[in-house]
Amino acid sequence: MIKRNLCAKIAGLLLLSILPTQDILTQNIVTIFGQEKIEKTDEGEVFYNFRNGFLLPGGTNPGTLFNGQDMIAWMYATGNFITPKAGAVIGYSYPNMDSQVEDAYLKWLAGSKGEKSMELLPQWTWAVMEADSAGLFKRPEMRSAFLYTSYESPKEQIALLETTGGTRTYVNGMPREGDHYDFGYTLTPVKLKKGLNEFVYTPGRFGKVTSKLVKPEKAIMFTKRDMTIPDIIIGEDNSKWAAIRVINAQEKPLQGLTIRATLPDGKQEEYKTQDIMALSVRKLRYKIPAIGNSGSEGKVIVKIELLDKSGKVIDQTNVEVRQVLPSVHHERTFVSRIDGSVQYYSVAPAIRKNPEETKAMVLTVHGAGVEARNQARAYKSKDWTDIIAATNRRPYGFNWEEWGRIDGLEVLEEAKRIFKPDESKIYLTGHSMGGHGSWFLGTTYPDKFAAVAPSAGYPDIASYGRGRGDDMHDKNSTYNAFKRGGNGGRVISLAKNLKQSGVYIFHGDADSVVSPSNARRMREVLGKFHPDFCYYEYPGGEHWFGDHSVDWHPIFEFFSRHSIPQAKDVKEMDFYTASPAISPTDYWLKVEQQIKPFDLSNVQVRLNNDTIHVLKIDNVAMLVLDIPSLMLGNEQVTVNISGQALPVPSNRKAILALENDKWQIKNEVNLKHKYSGRYGGFKNAYDNNVVFVYPTKGTVKENEWYQNKARFDAETFYYRGNGSIDVIPDTEYSIAKFPDRNVIVYGNKDNNRVWPLLLKNSPIQVAKGVITIGGKTFSGDDLGTYFIYPHPGSNTASVGVVAGTGDAGMLATSPNNYISGITGFPDLMIYRADMLKDGLTGMEAAGYFDNDWTLTSQDF
């Protein structure tokens, strides 16, 4: 194999055969009947449409649980990016190349550079690419190709970059969020420099890109793209949450903003909303006044005004809102605890004779690309149950994992608060991606649902969506940490949790989108242990065969025969969890700590009179038994566990900790250690009303880059998760100002002022040129790291770190695949910039903290 130090010396990449070519990136002039056409958007005037560029097929090797290779990100990080020209060839080595290619590569590096050597090398060539008459760059290979365009600006100016298609866009080397689902939401304020400005679009889902530059009509303004609007419910006298995006196309933040909403009858409500960082678009929350019983069904125009801190109106617009009776299908909103954003859910309400009637509740989770409002409207109202459609925070969202999982739970709790259902009659169903969501949520939270009905679903997305990058990593031992990080989605491993719930599997036997083999596999799995499941393949049914693809009467009949028992009536449990961070609880049993984080844990218990028998316990370091909920009436309960008989008073919870291979009774859970409320997994830092903090104490380049990185992550969280995140400089952060909130620290201890405040005692320290971790030292300016650590001023909050040791390491943190529903990020990872081109061979360390947040066991 090629030695690492050799690859490092040559940087693994050379640009060859740069052929001279004329500059084809000239501005297009669109005319109609000899007259120049001025194209406008609601936000301003289009002054440039990108129509010419270069395409680079290959160079990316995506994975499911961990990102593979990203050649463009690597080139920017290591200073190897060169403005492309037609025919410019890029060649670099993959890790684990075969001996013939390796030999050719070494000869080529030594100076032979012969044709035979070049033919054997992996290589990619920049090719001329032109958009069609509609400005669309489209070719089949663009699903795995980079697109380059440029613009020669006559002056320094601020513009809005409007793109569709690419996953992200590098603007003069800075990453910004793209629009890979073609939502049409992306408006990115960018500062163009005088002269050449370069744009590189990374591959998108649909293999196409459009891009244009817009001169903003105002520096500060509303945009009505992608609003979150509730229905006004007649008879309800509380105001409703809504959200609208505000563009800040200036180089200073907007603070002290208020949004005023006015109804036609003059009712107003003012709300002091969130701040917006410089050169950013943020979705801000506000409130629409209540109407009580005075309204009638129909459309209502609400006047929305944006006020600065002095009360001056900066911008205004009108928003159309539906006013409906509570008996019709409608939308409701709430504020998410993840980031303070406004989310919506849809309701197919039960038929009620009076508003106080108690009904059942069905949570339905939608498929990829489906809005919750459309999901709800596929169901006819029932006389016995409300049907609640969660959003997954977006139509594609997070595959119902990670933040999509949290959204489902938040919606369920909010809907329970509003509708007050029979708590024993809660059910779960979903279609396609929502079929996976049903399998995943049903296995993860077995005590929350009386019955589960996946339709046209697949159980495990890691096998369903496996990419080339996964194959590339399989032989690397570091990959185990990422596999463990993704264990929460391994439905097959958790399937025995479903034994507690009824299961109805529904699939079309002619489904060409999600093969019925997925349903048949789960039928086989359940058939080995489950006493209460139904299976039906709809004859001739494709992926969607009408509303009865979800609104299937036998499913609802099956649901009606199932109930969730009270904790006191549950005598046996066989509970599996991948992590207390995801699913710690099953009725009166709770896993607070694991021996090996994110490995599968299993607890089997049986209650017999006044004795709890723990029949099996694997990978559990702390177990809590809620004995009072059993209402036994005895003064004392005995817990038999691993050959020990431990007496516990029946009026208190039994907190059992494994110490030196013996189980001990504890008085309390140590909240400074790992526990279910703050456990780990890097992605869990992006939760709990998180705030992003970028540095101001570094070099000009560091400060600018980390500020942009924080902005980019906030844009990604907005795009993928309808998010709205506070992004602030380190000079504005204090624990008192942001109590009990998670924090993402961008930068290291030499450039971010909050490091000594939040990370002084962390066993991982990142400084210029060096990272120390658990007694080990890694040196170089090309090191990057992500890790999570407990917030020192809180028992619930966490701190996430995105940092580099130098320019190369800093830029190597640019990909943010941790904002994804299915990637498996452990507690910590340290890597070289070469990871972006070589995959996990560039990883120095990846793994998990101990339960006391040290690295004594060195589980990495």
From TrEMBL:
It holds the Pfam family Peptidase_S9. Residues 1-23 form the signal peptide. One of its GO terms (biological process) is proteolysis. Keywords: Signal. InterPro entries: AB_hydrolase_fold, Peptidase_S9_cat, Plant_Biomass_Hydrol_Est. The keyword Signal applies. Residues 400-559 form the Peptidase S9 prolyl oligopeptidase catalytic domain. GO terms for molecular function: serine-type peptidase activity. PANTHER family: PEPTIDASE S9 PROLYL OLIGOPEPTIDASE CATALYTIC DOMAIN-CONTAINING PROTEIN (PTHR43037:SF4), UNNAMED PRODUCT-RELATED (PTHR43037). This is Prolyl oligopeptidase family protein. It comes from Dysgonomonas alginatilytica.
